[in-house]
Structures
1.
Amino acid sequence: MSAVLVSALSRDDFHARADAELTFVYGQQAPDILQRLEALIAQHQKEITCEPTPLWNEQTQMMITYGDSVIEGEDSVPLEALERFMREHLEDTFSAVHILPFFTWSSDDGFSVIHYRKVSPAVGDWPQVRHLAGRFNLMFDLVINHVSRESLWFIDYLAGTKPGCDYFIELPEQTDVTSVTRPRNTRLLAPVSTRRGMRHVWATFSEDQIDLDFANPDVLIEMVGVLLYYLSQGARLIRLDAIAYLWKELGTRCIHLPQTHAIVRLLRAVMERVAPGALLLTETNVPHHENLSYFGNGDEAHIIYQFTLPPLLLHTLTAGDAGAMTEWAATLPPLPKGCTYLNFTASHDGVGVRALEGLLPRHDIDALLELMQRFGGFISMKTDPDGQDSPYEINITYFDALKGTRRGADPWQIARFICSQTIMLGLQGIPAVYVHSLLATLNDHEGVTRTGRLRAINRKRWQREALEPLLEAYSTPTHIVFEALSTRLKIRRQEPCFHPDVPQKIIDLGPHFFAFLRGPLPDGRRLLAIHNVTDRSHPLNLPEAYAGHRWHDLLERIDPEGEKPVLKPYRSCWLVTRD
């Protein structure tokens, strides 16, 4: 694929786009807000060095990790330990790293930010962040929807002083909020004691994460300032955390509101003005058709998460039936120009199940949830508008989620897990691999007991002295999985058919296989990815349209031209041809 360079948005073009979005959101206040925005950009622009670059290519591969997921003892600096681990074990594998929130925080492992511009001393400092940015394209979280109740802004609110006294949404306790979409089962209006007495403030996620009021344009200016600061510190990807809930309007669901989309478009324009080539990612763990809306008309997110993939892949591999996944993948619409998916199976959060709505019958979803509990996981619940609780997330490591099928645990866990990752790596988009998937980490029940948080099951902190023997011993799941994924990542980054812009076509080979074609490229090169999603061997019979070509397997698993080729349980092949 040819590389298309992204040039900076001109001042006039930025002015026109920003004015349109600000007018829609803030009406007559727009000219004043735009003037403030342009002054803010002028203030930061000299500090941001981001040359025009192609958006992505087949070498664009991301690792997701906390700054302290791999540590080297009490005296070491976690960010330095992370850099050493990647240099020693993952050279020429990943181009980008998502360092989960590394700012000072009070809860939710970083997603309750106390100070947006301070690195937590527990993981390092800004020079160490910038050093990492010299080796990898870094993704920072812009935790835009809420702040910690320990933040200076919220302390201002409690005291009734500027500026923070006007940054939050205060409502009477008896306000009817039943129409508001709830991602948790905690109460929406959190009681807080202020100098004016007891008050109730909007808190979508927890009583320690207080939502900001973007109806106040001062809040918008503050967050654009944070965005510009992150870009000046080396961020090349910005993840908008919990962005779907940004704008609140009583009487609506308070999710995906038009004002929210307008602010995403505004942030995109700011980034195109000061940092051409920097990418915007929206985090919206909702059903797929809602998630797609954040591409806008190619003017909102560059990248959205493929949230349907993790739970649907678990269903596919534990049921041994690719039917639902083949049907879903075949319905994915063509990507807008300059937009792509972030494909992943695991992250710091659990496996969301809302994305399965409308894709699987209720009994299949219930069977999956029951199985995940049998494999040591937990189910997190949310409160629906009718007051009933429903599941929204499975808390489990992805490795342990695949320790068996609906019949129970079996000897195929490692092969089944590697199959899951191979499927993810081949699909159209950018692959993102969670550090605990690389390391085949088991459920951390001790972490759940210690913290009291279900998500801790998938957030283990590895000590290098405990991890290295597992990586070196040939028979350990950690070694086998790490070597298999590292090898596939290195193969993948050399294969032009895996460029995110190369089209994808789903091939229905029956319930035993999940298969898709990537290509063709201008020179005719194509890649046919086939995966056996069952615990039995099956003959590989290529459709007539593909059987007459000379294929070569990049994974060196099968000879497709051999007599009666067979794909063993959970094996995959990446077949390429120019014919």
2.
Amino acid sequence: MLTFFAPPARANDDDDELTAIKEQIHALESRVVAIEKHRHGQRVTSGKGRQSISGLTRQSSASLKKPLDLAGGGGETPVEPQAEFSAGKPREPFFHFGSPQQSGGSQQTAADERSSVDLSSSSPLAITQTSVDRLPPVFSIGNISVRIGGFLELSNIWRDSNLTSGPATAWNNFPYANSPNHGLSEERLSAQLSRLSTLLEANPTPSTRLQAYIESDFGGSGGSTNSVQINGYVPRLRQGYFTFTQKDWGFHLLMGQAWSLATGYAKGVLPRNEQLPAVTDNNQIPGITFTRVPQIRIGKDWGQKYWLALSIEDPQATVAYSSTVASGDRLPAVGSNTVGPRVYYENAGGALLNPDTQYTDNPVPDIILKSAVDTSVGHYEVFGLARWFRSVIQSPGAARTHKDTQFGGGVGGGMTVPLGTPKLQLTGNVIAGEGIGRYGPTLLPDTTFNSRGQLTPVPELRGALGLIGHPDKSVLLYLYGGVETAGRRRYTAANGSQYGYGITDQNLSGCDIEFGTCNAQTRTLASFTTGGWWHFLDGQYGSVMAGVQYTYIRKFAFRGNDGMGNSVYPTTTGNTVYVTFRYLPFQ
């Protein structure tokens, strides 16, 4: 009979020994991290007393990649250190008034002291976008660094005529005196323009850079959105794109939704270098050229001085006509015809588009070609814009429809020039062409209909000048003037009346009489905007800024008559005031 004897159980002894080994490992790990922290922890981020996570973690991790063989064995299990989110002595004082400055007794370098809120530019990113490029990575995912930017905003908005608008002024909607809303002021508080952004970056080689950028605010609205109970405004996509840069080749690629290449730039033609007015209003100011659209852009630079870029951008169009013409309606008859042409030119949004918005039937994308040069005396750029507009027409007496495509576009330019001192800059932009209304904040029409039902581009001129001053590094002041004006595209129908855009035979006497009839068409809008920003709090827990903006706008209509043969030129004015506060927790 065989008897098997099991060895005595030693589970408890093994557990105790394993626990002791783990404690020694953790103790040594803590010492390694402390030594690495002491050696490298003096490097802090830009003036805010924060430690770069990636720097400390990577160095500590590299020191601990090899195992600590405390038992004399040859194991290969790496010990991962605890993540370090901050290090070093907090910046003192907690906050201070005035511009960002070095705290007393601090030993930081000038580079460390530089704040990410930089108001020295003619278009500071901390105001116009989110300045995320100037921030340190919050964390890394593999070899991809992640930066987070944005701000919380509260704006107090006052207009002297009621537009029932949020923090984006529809400049062309200021009513004439016939409307009860004329002279009826509106007052609104809004946090909708609070903004969040994320920038992801990787550098596969020293000359190659990949970036992905997304930016969002709360300027959208849903079916249940209202300002009665909870002001539940929804997030919307402002920008979302990725870029590829090959420095040695001077090659740049952008794909996604970004500011149009037609927008002015402060330097080069790269994203997040746009020359945007430093204003609060989300609809910018009348006179500038801008839109945010999905696009594919390729660019080339020569020594970061000369630039050339081509962009293919999402097409849409605005259509105006002297009478209401829905897609599928007939226009007034011309000549000897008894009926006019039937026109189809837009459809309600379908899947993933807004069903309450009409989308025009554009055949191909808009195309923009821009060249720019950066010199010691400023940035200069010129560009060309090409557009196509399509309608489907059933001519009088025809049994079938046919497609018709018309060409539009324009040429423009811009500049940013220092006026003898870095504290004063002059900016300007101009564009002239036909069918360019969509690229302006007042949304003058791109097209109207001619007598055959074709979409005819409307001529337009748009331009703006800005003067930006920096009396102190914590203060920015600005002054802008802008103008947008449209030309005529009209015809006379069989009934003797004019149709199209810019007609002159309407009775507009009711425009100055309350409850009168006023079908005036906008000819010109001229604007004046002034304001400024003050970066008045800065510390290790972020920055606070305050801004104030005033805009005066005057709207002029095309000439009409008073019913008795006298000319009438309706006009109206608008005034807006913004008082804005922003908390920038990442700056």
3.
Amino acid sequence: MRVTGTGHASMRIDTGAGSILCDPWVNPAYFASWFPFPDNSLLDWETLGDVDYLYVSHLHRDHFDAAHLKRYVSKKATVLLPEFPTSEMEDEFRALGFTKFLKTRNEEVVELDGGLKIMIQALTSPTDGPIGDSSLWVEYDGVRLLNQNDARPTDLSTFAELGHVHAHMLQFSGAIWYPMVYELPQSAKTAFGKQKRDRQFDRTWRYIDDLKADHVFPIAGPPCFLDDELWQFNDIFGDEGNIFPDQSVFLAEYAKVGGTNGIVLLPGSVSEVTTSGATTTHPVPVEEFFANKVAHLEEMRERKRPIIEAEKASWRHPEIDVLKELKQRIEPLLDESIYLAKGVGGPVRFDLVGYDGESIESIVVDFPGKQVRPYADEKVRYRFRTERALVEHLLHIGEVDWVNSLFLSCRFSAARIGQYNEFVYAFFKCLSTERLQYAEGWYDEHERAVDAEDITLGDWVVQRRCPHLKADLSRFGIVDGDQLTCQLHGWRFDLPSGRCLTSVGHKVRAHRVGEETEVAQPTS
């Protein structure tokens, strides 16, 4: 099995029974904030895109690059579709000209022509990607590969049961806006960033240990930030709180925990994977490339500057009455929302900075009141500050997912009182009736689910499944004193009370070993 690195989470897999192109991303994403690094725009995409099969793990724009898919990927390719709850991915592919689809069933192995086998695991909670994320398992002639990209399954046993894996591709770096955009003292940002960076690596080590593949390939990150306004987010300043460590940092950290089987794929690297080993060639030496990372970034910044400026010039739409448009789009969704609106539990404020960089229009999305209105000097738990032009552009293009656009762009600042509230971001990911109804139904089923199985962790008996996204706490749970941490997403719980210390809701059922509880604590 030949694996060609094509940048970020993208790769081309070639076998004797066909080729699969995965997650090709080249064009800037999220308001021209994210670029692939190392740069992959100079690869021979005409050749790379001439494939038998196309797999895109999910609709995040650093995985689903519509312009690139339309121009460079053969429309004769069969699209391998995960079993997602909505038809959005298929609809987007059809709009780009793709006509051949294989609609997979979740965790069901499919044998394609020539003995090529594939299996896709779809994750379908409202917090998995933009309504869905997935991983691809491939087998040919006894060689097995798992492309986990940046999916976070509760465990990898489904793949391990299919046989020993020889190549494991997975995310290790950040893909979020926290804590960089929060209005906090720099010391706090550094501390929170270091915690997140450590959790990212801990989660990665846990997945690697679960699967025990012959070779581990760090992929799906980090992006690079080439706009001058965002340059500080690149991990080139020795900041231990930067959440975007690169592949060379991965190898160094992996070595600290005994990892010796890591393989980095630069764009153009080729790894020949067999049942007995892997031989990899690179366009340039990996160590040499990352030793010159700053120079590479500076060269990219100058070369991509016209692209960024052109994108910025397209964002302003002064003809749009933002308050009026937001009322028309969001208020009907607030009327339909039960779980998300209750979960947010209060007003969310947007401060929109005008073209002059000074004037501000403050608008509130009032979840309890089910309305969008001007800010009325009330206390809010969540506040976002961004350029008015960005929101104008979102309204102009009818964007249904502000997470997969505004928030991932990092072109905003945020402040909050109290704990993280996942429902805020879940709602702004679901600005369409189809998405909202799915999310409401998922939370309805999730909130009413009873998790009766318990496990013992240290001195505590706790429910086996994490109240957040049902991670198996026998694998991801760590107890330190009276606190439980689920390492899958870093959520923490106070065991004596069951209270979640990370977010609103999500109470855990727990009691000390040897103590009986008359009434089980609710899981939400």
